[in-house]
Amino acid sequence: MRRLKVFRSLVKDSLDTITHGSKKYHLWMALLTFVMLVGMYCYSIQLEQGLSATGMTDRVSWGLYISNFTFLVGVAAAAVMLVMPTYVLKDVDFKQAVLIGEGLAVAALIMCLAFVIADMGGPSVLWHMIPGIGVFNFPNSMLTWDVLVLNGYLFINITIPFYILFRHYQGKEAKSNVYVPGAFLSVFWAVGIHLVTAFLYQGLQARPFWNNALLGPRFLASAFAAGPALIILVLAIIRTFTAFKIEDKTIKKIAMVVTVAAQINLIMLISELFKEFYAPTHHSESAYYLFFGLHGKDALLPWIWTAIPLNVLATVLLTFHKLRNNFKVLFFACFILFVAIWIEKGFGLIVPGFIPGPYGKIAEYTPTLIEIGVTLGIWALGAFVFTILAKTAIGIEIGKLRYKN
Hints:
The chain crosses the membrane at residues 27-46, 66-85, 97-118, 147-166, 178-201, 221-242, 254-274, 300-320, 329-352, 372-394. Belongs to the NrfD family. Its main location: membrane. The protein has 14 helices and no strands. By secondary structure, the protein is an all-alpha fold. α2 runs antiparallel to α14, α3 runs antiparallel to α5 (95-119) and α3 runs antiparallel to α7.
């Protein structure tokens, strides 16, 4: 009964916290709300007209939605790079950032699920994925595995931080024997969500561009580069605009994680390029289309030839110790690395897998304004959720929010 009373107090205090703030905070939330409304309007058009309102066709059936889904699975998995050193290795330098990282994982997973719903055409078809009601086809379908690991990881990333914050809200320390087993589980689960997503693509025999043994490991490398890079940028914003001060050494340690992951990701990229172009076969046509175009079709060239130089530049900047310790350079490198990997794992991976088609036909894909509107709306939803979670968590961690008996 007392816990229920504390929970009600926490909800009340949280609502009070997220509805009050500075002028900049209210402008930020108003902007996100406006973008979400635009996204909802675009989605209403898609619901009315069907997926024909998008740029997707029977030739290219996965586009902007699944591209963002694939990328955000990696962002969600990246929270483990803070969870493992904090809860498992007892590194106190990561402790300040771990709750922020887990909040980011929750927001990313919510966006993942939203992009899947948008790509399915509407929420009315979701019943097909409910075990016992729809045709779940477990364990044969990799898609059902993906549903399980994503929802399971979302549950873990909600319950562990909630327990810790709930205890801190009461002025008590969280009991390690309660949350540490869940932290250990989240480490393996984070690897699982990305590997299962990679296996989902690798298992499609008709798409040779994805039949690559490096796809799973490279998914992890790019995730552990882009995710912590985003966390660094978020931490920089938080310590600038809030009373929650993140120490320099915390950001520097996360930057080292980003650096190593970016280097491994670049090595794997070079290995993939060697495999595709040194001894090309007819299965290399998707890669040729992506990097050089085929038969005058070259819609993806500007994207990939923007991503590759940005990836190389970011990795080089991060590799040099003096440059990495300069925060202006670090933040710039993290930003361009985030953008580069977003392009690579989106337009550089999903779309060319469908081009050319099984009969050699080239049907290019360009997202429509409806797709772009829905995508921006979902990203705004993620930012909105994260802002709410972060504002509450920061209030509790700095002692501003406390349970009053």
